[in-house]
Specification:
The complex is a heterodimer. By secondary structure, chain A is α+β, with helices and mostly antiparallel strands. Chain A has 2 helices and 4 strands. In chain A, a hairpin with a 5-residue loop joins strand 2 and strand 3. The longest helix of chain A has 13 residues. Chain B is built from 14 helices and 12 strands. Chain B has one domain: Cytochrome P450 (Cytochrome p450, Orthogonal Bundle). Classes of the chains: A alpha+beta, B alpha+beta. Chain B: Belongs to the cytochrome P450 family.
Chain lengths: 64, 393
């Protein structure tokens, strides 16, 4: 699994940092930052949930 | 491809004391092809959106606007209308991208998951103080007036940097705005004016003597004029007050009926979904011809995405009316969706979590002081909630 984020689209809702704190964080402007590009199996569900929940479509999860 | 048959026409969602959140009407609308057409109380036709997928599509469509200045924006009644931009500059929930984004960007750092976590001790203190006051006053209380309404108001006032000596004033005026049964239109207009005057004075003070608070930090960014800032602050206050209070009150009722779930880690998320207090606040209008659910929506036609309907869509949530914190599906839209999704959502989550935890820890014998069928649900205001919640212990 690979995760990419679009910081331009991000609206700082923080659902990613809340649901997958091992994979995502918010910088000091509150915008998404990626902690891990290829999450471990244990964090995969959290990353998928963050992709599903992101209100601005800033998170893409590539299942490859 | 658009459907060729005409849309089904339905009555505007009818909220009653028996069904204050009209979920049975929504269920039948979801069965219809595409969207259903309805008429606002003022007779203007409007599209109702009741499926989860369609609600998300509407709230992210670039040609669907949240700006009430656009012709055809649904006016759901005076109290439900979003103010026009020339009335309250800074009321950015009524702006579209990119104008909207300037306001949101300045505010995001104040509501990050990390910042809200830092507020926890202050929120716990506020909640404890309100419980102390209830316990000191006797063995019964109105949990709305004595707890659910003051807590978010006190939290937001401390966030804004309202001095402790002024917080009672602040709390009483915000409470007047919410008391639709007991306050007149004129009293509410006066309370709004007094709050705006107070906010403007506070801004002037923070300009001279900045502190460690939200107003001082927003001023320091230099991104907002003081008129815009006062509109933004009023918006934060109104958006975060009754919504949070209603969630706290309804959540306590649901937890008293389902005490086995008290303390569950997914409790707050499920309560947000189940009660969907802001069902009808995300009003929109098409600013070009658009297609949603195979239905052509013409430029200038109003759209009412119903968040509670989406959150009870059986395609997404199995047994949607059941309170089940262990359900695996998390994609509720209780905070809306798209660029306008609630900025304060992480703050609300923490307020709810602390409120339930402290209430049931400190008052383990808490119970309703009315029969469950005697609860006064709000069906006559903007938001779903309780007018009052008599409890005893």
């Amino acid at each position: 699994m690979r995760v990419t984020v679009d910081r331009e689209r991000c609206v700082g809702a923080g659902q990613c940092a809340l649901n997958a704190p091992e994979v995502f964080d918010q910088d000091e402007d509150g915008i998404v930052t990626l902690l891990v590009r290829e999450p471990e199996e244990a964090d995969a569900d959290g990353a998928r949930a963050a992709g599903d929940l992101c209100p601005s479509g800033s998170i893409t999860v590539h299942e490859d | 491809m658009t459907t060729s048959t005409g849309p089904t026409v339905v009555g505007f969602p009818r909220r009653t004391p028996e069904e204050p959140l009209p979920l049975s009407q929504y269920a039948s609308h979801r069965e219809q092809n595409g969207l259903v057409l309805s008429h606002l109380p003022n007779g203007v036709p409007v599209w109702l959106v009741t499926r989860h997928e369609d609600v998300r599509a509407v709230l992210t469509h670039p040609k669907i606007s949240a700006n009430p200045d656009n012709e055809g924006f649904p006016n759901v009644g005076e109290t439900m209308g979003v103010p026009k931009q020339d009335q309250i500059p800074g009321w950015f929930v009524g702006l579209d991208s990119p104008e909207h984004d300037r306001f949101r960007k300045v505010l995001i750092p104040e509501f990050t998951v990390r910042r809200v976590r830092e507020l926890r001790p202050a929120i716990e203190r506020t909640v404890d103080e309100r419980i102390d006051a209830m316990l000191a006053a006797g063995d019964r209380a109105d949990l709305i007036g004595d707890f659910a309404l003051p807590v978010p108001s006190l939290v937001i006032s401390s966030l804004l940097g309202v001095p402790p000596a002024d917080r009672d004033f602040f709390e009483s005026r915000t409470r007047t705005l919410v008391a639709i049964r007991t306050s007149t239109d004129e009293e509410r207009a006066t309370a709004t004016r007094e709050l705006l005057r107070y906010i403007n004075r506070l801004i002037a003070i923070k300009e001279k003597w900045p502190g460690d608070d939200l107003i001082s930090r927003l001023l320091a960014t230099g991104q907002l004029t003081s008129v815009e800032l006062s509109g933004v602050l009023l918006l934060l206050l109104i958006a975060g007050h009754e919504t949070t209070a209603n969630n706290i009150g309804l959540g306590v009722v649901t937890l008293l009926a389902n005490p086995q779930w008290i303390g569950h880690e997914r409790l707050v998320e499920e309560l947000l979904r189940l009660h969907s207090v802001a069902d009808m606040v995300a009003l929109r209008v098409a600013v070009d011809d658009v297609e949603i659910a195979g239905r052509l929506i013409r430029k200038g036609e109003g759209i009412v995405p119903l968040l509670a309907a989406a959150n009870h869509d059986t395609e997404v949530f199995g047994c949607p009316h059941a309170f089940d914190p262990e359900r695996s599906e998390r994609r509720h839209v209780a905070f809306g969706y798209g660029v306008h999704q609630c900025l304060g959502q992480n703050l609300v989550r923490v307020e709810m979590e602390i409120a339930y935890r402290k209430l049931f820890e400190r008052i383990p014998t808490l119970e309703l002081d009315v029969p469950p069928d005697g609860l006064a649900f709000k069906y006559d205001g903007i938001l779903f909630g309780l007018h009052e919640l008599p409890v005893r212990w």
